[in-house]
Amino acid sequence: MATGSDWRRYFRAWTADSLSGAWTPLADTEANAFIRSNNVTFAGGQPAWTSDSASGDYSQLPWHLGLLTRTNSSC
């Protein structure tokens, strides 16, 4: 997880053939984020994890597990 220039969270990703193998960037920059508010949609009524209304101590903010489903691929 990282924080972007706009203070919104984004997530980066790398791939490897094994845990001890060489790690290759898949989406590792703010401009090419693996998950970010501008490339994620939410099912009806579900709260966005990038909500601008959150405030307070970061470690005390509520969180919810989520499942990512790729929808823009022919894989």
From TrEMBL:
Keywords: Glycosidase, Hydrolase, Secreted, Signal. The keyword Hydrolase applies. It catalyses: Hydrolysis of terminal non-reducing alpha-L-arabinofuranoside residues in alpha-L-arabinosides. It is found in: Secreted. Signal peptide: none annotated. It comes from the Bacteria. Its EC number is 3.2.1.55. It is an enzyme of class 3 (hydrolase). This is non-reducing end alpha-L-arabinofuranosidase. It comes from Streptomyces coacervatus.
